[in-house]
Amino acid sequence: MNKICDHKSVGMLVWQDGKMLMIERMKPPFEFAPPTGHLDGCEDYEEMAKIELFEEAGLTAKSLRLLGKGRKENPCRRIDGSWHYW
Q1: What is the pLDDT of residue 85?
Q2: Per residue in 55-79, pLDDT tens?
Q3: Which of 80-86's residues contact partners 24+ apart within 8 Å by CB, and which partners?
Q4: Which of 28, 37, 55, 66 has the highest local Cβ count within 10 Å?
Q5: pTM of the entire structure?
Q6: Could you write out the three-class secondary structure of 25-83?
Q7: Which residues partner with 23 through β-bridges?
Q8: Averaged pLDDT score across all residues of the chain
């Protein structure tokens, strides 16, 4: 079953020794990207960032720092997202 887009998401930039963590997407668009994800009803962005980092990279965040906040149009594969691949 396809999920509905909640139009809220988080993304993390994880750095270690001058290198940024990238994950390989398994669904279109097939590319490398920082860990990201929808909030799916969770209103706590910091908690969701920790959850997504663990789900996508198997890492536990020691600390988080907000780098930016706002709205950005972004392609979404979910129903009612900004556009679809199917």
Answers
A1: 45
A2: 999 999 988 998 888 777 666 777 7
A3: 80/4, 80/5, 81/5, 81/7, 82/5, 85/28, 85/29
A4: 37
A5: 0.74
A6: CCCCCCCEECCEEECCCCCCHHHHHHHHHHHHHCCCCCCCCCCCCCCCCCCECCECCCE
A7: 33
A8: 83
